[in-house]
Amino acid sequence: MRTVLLAFILMGPLSAADWGPLQYLVGSWIGEGDGSPGKGSGGFSFSEDLQGKILVRRNFADYPAQGGKPPFRHDDLMIVYRDADGKTLRAMYFDNEGHTIPYLVDAGANSAVFTSEGARDTTRFRFTYTRAPNGGPDSVKIKFEIAPPGKDLAVYIEAVAHRAAGK
Q1: Spatial contact of 69 and 45, defined as CB atoms under 8 Å apart
Q2: Which among 1, 87, 106, 160 is least surrounded, fewest beta carbons within 10 Å?
Q3: Domain CATH code at residue 121
Q4: Tally of structural domains, the chain
Q5: Does residue 7 lie within any of the structural domains?
Q6: Beta bridge partner(s), residue 167
Q7: What b-and-e string marks burial along 68-99, b requiring 16 or more CB atoms within 10 Å of the CB?
Q8: Which domain holds residue 84?
Q9: pLDDT in tens, 19-54
Q10: Domain-located, residue 68
């Protein structure tokens, strides 16, 4: 027991990872948006896992019945991680529609851009979080774009999210 305690003291306490420009996304968010699937509402969270080695994003969007379409719900999970070099950020995305998408992540002071890996002759995706300048640290703009094979990216959904109270 003393050896374990001594080892813990020498190592120091486990601390959360510094996710740098993604750190502001850690927490729970509530949003509303509009786009090709229609007006919807939902929420997402980014939380550290595996002792700070990954960020896990859980997301959902509820769309009411509209335009003759029944209501539906979209759920997805994204795991953000550092590449072997410890600097390059990547992400892996999974959803209830059967999509699995690898992303490269380019994060700066005011935005985080997740761009799918793949050639122009495949369907491509880009997901952007931008700090809302007038919303302070508790507001982000979200844009999701899709490009069919050989085409340019086009906006599919735009939304604004606000940090959930107490998160």
Answers
A1: no
A2: 1
A3: 2.40.128.20
A4: 1
A5: no
A6: none
A7: eeeeeebebebebebeeeeeebebebeeeeee
A8: 15-163
A9: 888 998 999 999 877 666 667 788 999 999 999 999
A10: yes
CA pair distance 123, 151, nearest whole angstrom: 9
Tens of pLDDT, residue by residue over 52-89, are 999 999 999 888 888 888 998 999 999 999 998 888 99
pLDDT number for residue 17: 66
**Do 28 and 152 contact (CB within 8 A), yes or no?**
no
* 2 in a structural domain: no
Encode pLDDT of 93-119 as tens digits: 999 999 999 999 999 888 999 999 888
SS (H, E, C) the chain: CHHHHHHHHHHCCCCCCCCHHHHHHCEEEEEEEEECCCCEEEEEEEEEECCCCEEEEEEEEEECCECCECCEEEEEEEEEEECCCCCCEEEEEEECCCCEEEEEEEECCCEEEEEECCCCCCCEEEEEEEECCCCHHHEEEEEEEEECCCCCCEEEEEEEEEECCCC
Q: What confidence score (pLDDT) does residue 25 get?
A: 93
